[in-house]
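Just curious. Invent one:
>
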Amino acid sequence: MRVGLPGSVPLTQAEPVLYVFKTMNEPGVGELSLFRVFAGTVRSGDELLNSSRGVTERMGQLYVLDGRERTPVPQLNAGDLGAVVKLRSTHTGDTLCSPKHVVSLPPVEYPAPNIHGALILRSKGDEDKLAVGLATLHAEDPTFHYRVDDEVHQTIVSGQGEIQLQVLVERLLRRFGVAVELEEPRVPYRETIRSRGESRYRHKKQTGGAGQFAEVWLRIEPAARDAGVVFTQSLVGTNVDRVFVPSVEKGIRTATLEGILASYRVTDVKADFFDGKMHPVDSKDIAFQIAGYHAFKEAFLAATPCLLEPIYDVVVTVPEEHVGAIMGDISARRGHILGVDVDGHFQLVRAQVPQKELYHYSTTVRSLTSGRGRHSETFSHYAEVPHELAQKLIAEAKSRRETAQTK
């Protein structure tokens, strides 16, 4: 519960309340939590409650910092800045207070990151060191974010500007011995269809010993946007034992994850397993998985496939004299202007822009506005990729597959 400090009690005599505003990790020392005392007196050995996480922390040796110098002190009073080492569960933005008087100070609201990059390891085998380094640096600086994107198979870092990401790369090398490079993140395109398609695929394998046999009749059609892949079965009669339905679905799910047109995930498709054939001896789980996999691919290619790209809502805050330059740049990026609003002495240009066109966009905004503009971006929806760009992406995917097969 968030409560205020009692106004009738002097801050130095109130129960202790402190706010952790920064976390540092020093070699040979460990995690160092920097805090400000907002009320009361905190002493070494005090048991305080972390009201942000509901755990108790024991305060170790307290320090006053002066550059790199740490001076041990027995206590700190309201208004003082100090540091303490090795708090177990306390991080930047947490409140520590007396269990007798629970207080939760509002955390700092950091600006959303507006520039992104992909980290590429220079040497294999450093994945664990990279994970530890990123977690440690994020605890010290919450203004940057990182995530492992399993769709594009990259580690994505996001920050407030190019310099922050460059400093991050330098710190990973200097402090954790991890050499990485920054490159443009891959765009998570998606594949879908515009019309209906049908396939009747037979899988038959007889090479000595137990054979494999399965025949899957599949019908697919477009689904609503963001519906994912919807699998149903409408089998009638005894042509296919219902025990093989999960096998067909598994094969279809595998095909959707691999992609068919350009190796991107398939979405917004309804697939109906409506009939097929089986063999009393040779039909088995793996046979129906393979048949389902190839039946879906055949039906997909027959249903007018296309590519989708992520579209972002972008709001650019700029002085009035730079609105024209920003709108022209957005149009050149295949963006769609939604409107312009007034915010005091600034104009808010609202638009929708494909993710592909937003790489290093914050740098462009600062360049076009003499450093006075800023922007925010949030994911909006997926939309169909223009034909010319789609053909280029499909050709690139085909080239990558051919290169991988020759290696």
Remarks:
- The domain at 307-384 is CATH 3.30.70.240 (Alpha-Beta Plaits).
- The chain has a mean pLDDT of 91.
